[in-house]
Amino acid sequence: MKHLLPASSPLPPGEVLLCCVNIPRRLPEELATRLRRALPEEECARHARYGDEGAAGEFLCGRALLRAVLSTWAPVDRRAWRFALNPHGRPGIASPESPLHFNLSHTRGMVVLALGCDPWVGVDVERLDRSVRPLEVADRFFSPLEVDGLRSLPTERHRDRFLALWTLKEAYIKARGMGLALPLRDFSFSPDASPPSVRFEPSLGDDESRWRFERVDLDSGHRVAVAAKVPRLTVHLSRVDLEALASHVGLPHTAGAV
Ligand SMILES: CC(C)(COP(=O)(O)OP(=O)(O)OC[C@H]1O[C@@H](n2cnc3c(N)ncnc32)[C@H](O)[C@@H]1OP(=O)(O)O)[C@@H](O)C(=O)NCCC(=O)NCCS
User: Fold this and answer.
1) What structural domains does the chain harbor?
2) Mean per-residue pLDDT over the chain, rounded
């Protein structure tokens, strides 16, 4: 796994490894076949059930990346990792026992994995060219503070601000593991602050002083936000080459050979 990752040991508290892979809209069949070798039967079956080719490719690359990265840190065959879902659908490591926690996000052209030893970590990636109606969606889902902030900007800045807020909100609800069961209006981000800051309404039952957030511009087309419930957050970015990932997937497991 030498070409995949810079890190060779589990991460200390407060540190998150962000692994990202650029993926084509259509995965060549030969590449998909090699990536599928990292997945157990039930995940291959899930991959085969996707009706949309793009979504299928994102799922396949995400799970292949996750399994490859986990197996660089533990003497476990990539296919042997078992994941279990929380009541809101968030997968976590069920076996073998591991100190690691992860969250995955994908969008057209990109898969991102956030990994660390802190349990509350969330990530969201969005592409900048996705079609959005910022004011309409913000009015429906964002907090009044966020909507006011958005409306105060010139129109040409709406898309950028909207996506900054969207990725941060999504990273937070994913870190909580509750998805849209959390009311999106009940917390407000200030994305211009560095690092971004948040304000929670009492109804959210959470304490903003315990959360840290980072925004990462992966390339000219993709934006990422990371959320973690930690006193200090350091994000390490690792760009993983899809071909390298697929090649290693095709090799026998080499435990600890980093
Ligand atoms: C499911 C949800 C958690 C994320 O969905 P998404 O943005 O479509 O997808 P992402 O690519 O960012 O994340 C999907 C991954 O998150 C993980 N995930 C699934 N449910 C999750 C949950 N409840 N909490 C955290 N992570 C979750 C999974 O690993 C999934 O990938 P996989 O199925 O390939 O393993 C949820 O927030 C949702 O349905 N969002 C819809 C989008 C929306 O309206 N957002 C409003 C933001 S303002």
Assistant:
1) 1-118+233-258 (3.90.470.20), 121-229 (3.90.470.20)
2) 90
